[in-house]
Structure formats: structure tokens, C-alpha cells
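Progress report, Aim 2. The chain analyzed during this reporting quarter is listed below.
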Amino acid sequence: MTTDTPATGRVVLLTASHRVAPGLLSWPAWQTLRTADRVLCADASHPQLPYLREAGVTVEHASPAARELVDACAQGATVVVLTSGEGDRKLTDGLARLAGSGRESMPDLELLPGSYDLPGARLLDLVQIMDRIRRECPWSAGQTHHGLAKYAIEEAYELVEAIEEGDRDELREELGDVLLQVVFHSRIAEEGDPDGEGAFSVDDVAGTIVEKLIHRHPHVFGDESAKTPEEVKAHWLRMKAVEKQRDSVTDGVPLGQPGLALAAKLASRARTAGLAVPLPSGSGVGYELLALAVAAEAAGVDPEAALRAAGRAYRDAIRAAETAGGA
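Predicted C-alpha cells for the chain:
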């Protein structure tokens, strides 16, 4: 005599990224939703619900325990649980305990991703968090572009230091700090000037740089060609000159940057433009440093980076002297 083994059914935990527009589910997810015996969701405000209702999928507002979910799959039923973006740890832990007991006839368990994050999706989280901080944090709510300017400079220097030290963990953190400055300033800009004029958002900022990159890379997005880095730079400078309508190659060079960097930048602009400009005559350490910076730029050396490297060596020598003196 044979005994029929009862069908154990199927539990599908359907996840969907909150960073992807609701309703943009994969085809396997839609197939599973439309053929399931029951679809459950504990969150009555889940962003997918309006789109599921529009597609004719009936969703029950329920938060079953693991035992209840197993029982619901009796007789071979398929039950889909629409989880939150972070999943449902309590439910999955409960199912794992039942399966591990060895005393339960468990349904088939399946984790079905309905949508995946695209590259850069976590930037959406950063924008949302910055928006809330701007509204609810007293310090952040009172900040202005001018007040934050010094932090942008500090974070940029810390990023450079992490690069030069070769510290990958520090590099990741400092890149985040620089990114925060961009998002923070963009959030402030949404409010416009004191009169509420000239507002723009982080999307406007991203859109502007996207358009600029496409326009300045005709060898990538257009019909022109560039086989060497020098040809790419020539394209860039030519496009930039057309955009900015500048009268001099020195236009746009910030005079407030560190002196060695300023000298190297001016030398680079003159050299790229094919201008043979003799150095101004003068005496004193300033003119000596100018000559060194120009010579470094011509040799392909960043004088600021070179001086920082020498400065670190000097720092180490000072520490060594302090240690020897205290011995």
C-alpha cells in the first residue's frame, strides 16, 4: 500500500529595492505574483501596492508568523510575502528555526529579488538623508554656502592626503566627505538666494556635469577621434574655450589657490597654448619658487605634491629627533 505524500507548497519572499521606481519589477516577479494563491504584505503603505492593485493582483494586509505561513502552504499552495526593502528578519529567522528542527514538513522556500539597485543607487539614500538633516538638524538648517566653504577646502586636502598616503579605507571615507559637501551645497541651493531666486537641485548639478562631459568628449560621444591623452586634452581645452569665451588662457585660474599650484597651473596653460613666456625678473624667494614650480610643471611633476612629500619626510625627521632627544 502506498501513501501519497502531501504537497508542501511554496513560500516566496519577494524583495524590491526602494531605490528603484515602484512597479518596475522583473518578469519572474510579475509571473509569481499573478499565479500565487495568496500575496501577503505587512506594510499597508508599501510603495508597490498601488501598482499591484492596478495589475489586478490581490494583496492581503497581513503579517504572518513563520508557523502560520507554513500552514498556509498546505495542500501545495504558493504564498508570496512582499517584504520591506530591508527584508523581514523575524520571519526568515522563524522559518529557519522550523526548518532546522527536523520535525516540520517545510514548503519550498525561495527568495525572489523583484528589482535590483542600479550602480549609484545609494546616492539616492544620501540625497534623502541630507534633505531630512537640512530640515530637522538645527546646525545644518542654519548653514549657508559661505559658511560651508572652508569645509570643502579641508575635505579636499584630506582627500589628497589619503591618496598620497595610499590608505584605501581612508580614501573611501574622504571621498564620502567630499561627496557630502556637494550634496549639502546642492540642498541649500534648492532654497535659492535670500529672495528665493536662482534655486537649483542636486539633479540640476548632475545634469550640468553630464552635459559638460558629453560635450567635452566628442571622441567618445561624437564623431571626432583622439588616440593619445594629449589629443584628449586638446579637445577639452578647445571645447572649454568655446564655452567660456575667455580672452586669455589665464582666465578661470583661481588666484586664491596655493602658490606652487597657481604657478604650475599658469605654466601649464601657457605651455598648452604654445606661448613661450619668459619668467618675470625679480629677486627674492617668491621668484625662486616660481622658477622651481614652472620647471617642475615642465618636467611633469606636481610641485605641490613634491613639496608635501618633502614636508612629510621633514616631519618624520623632526619626530625622530624628538625621540632621540628624549631617550
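The longest strand covers residues 10-15. The chain is about 55% helix and 5% strand. These observations will guide the mutagenesis work planned for the next reporting period.
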